[in-house]
Inverse folding.
């Protein structure tokens, strides 16, 4: 019984050791690898969409393995497509979160600006009122002094 | 070696033979991807409610066309094709939804910043 295991086990070992480092990549797989690498190099994406990028990494690993195991082009292309789209999802998630952050800060700024604008309008009204009162007082004083302005 | 080596009496070799036989028979062993179809349909609906028909119409159209193709493949019992298409619909629709949300947020941020600019001018005018 033990002897019967040698051949398949050796075959398995050869397959595992040889891996597929020298395998020529399909163009779709190379494209997926490139888009994944560039997203990985983008700190905005790694910081704001780490989870989404991890999913993309999972798809890429599957695509790589399928290519290694000589799966049909159809399967490799499919997994490469999922990788590419998932990378785009990660990038779009980062863009979305950035825009949401902009909305938040702009809202805060607007609320502050509205308060300031109200304050400034009030101050302007007060200044006009004081100026008017000063003019009125001076007119009265001048009239009392017998001067006709 | 016997021609029917996959029926070899040795358990190890026989199990490999059975595995190869399953792979060779192919599609017959793939179950209908009903779960994946439901997930993908939900993703398309989510993309529509996110406003992708206005902000990401091309991506939404691609997702919907693939969803129709997946449904046809289900009817034809071509489950491998249905499965692949449905998986693609899921990522396509998610991307469409995110693109729409991202575009909407960017638009809102722009409007707010414009409002702020006008308010700022008003404050400066009043301060004089």
């Amino acid at each position: 019984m033990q002897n019967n295991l040698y051949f398949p086990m050796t075959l398995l070992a050869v397959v595992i050791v040889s891996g597929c480092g020298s395998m020529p990549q399909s163009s779709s797989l190379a494209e997926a690898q490139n888009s994944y690498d560039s997203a990985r190099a983008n700190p905005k994406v790694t910081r704001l969409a780490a989870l989404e990028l991890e999913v993309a990494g999972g798809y890429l690993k599957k695509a790589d393995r399928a290519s290694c195991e000589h799966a049909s082009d159809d399967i490799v292309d499919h997994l490469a497509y999922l990788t590419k789209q998932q990378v785009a999802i990660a990038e779009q998630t980062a863009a979305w979160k950035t825009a949401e952050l902009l909305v938040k800060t702009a809202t805060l700024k607007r609320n502050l600006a509205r308060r300031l604008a109200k304050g400034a309008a009030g101050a302007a009204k007060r200044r006009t009122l004081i100026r008017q009162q000063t003019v009125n007082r001076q007119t009265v004083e001048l009239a009392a002094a017998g001067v006709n302005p | 070696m016997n021609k029917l080596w996959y029926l070899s009496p040795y358990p190890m070799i026989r199990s490999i033979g059975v595995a190869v036989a399953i792979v060779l028979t192919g599609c017959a062993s793939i179950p209908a991807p009903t779960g994946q179809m439901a997930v993908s349909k939900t993703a398309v609906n989510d993309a529509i409610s996110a406003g992708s028909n206005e902000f990401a119409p091309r991506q939404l159209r691609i997702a919907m066309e693939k969803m129709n193709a997946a449904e046809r493949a289900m009817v034809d019992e071509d489950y491998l094709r249905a499965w692949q298409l449905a998986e693609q619909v899921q990522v396509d629709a998610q991307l469409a939804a995110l693109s729409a949300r991202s575009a909407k947020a960017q638009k809102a941020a722009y409007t707010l910043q414009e409002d702020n600019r006008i308010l700022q001018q008003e404050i400066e005018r009043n301060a004089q």
Remarks:
- The first helix of chain A runs from residue 2 to 18.
- Chain A has a mean pLDDT of 86.
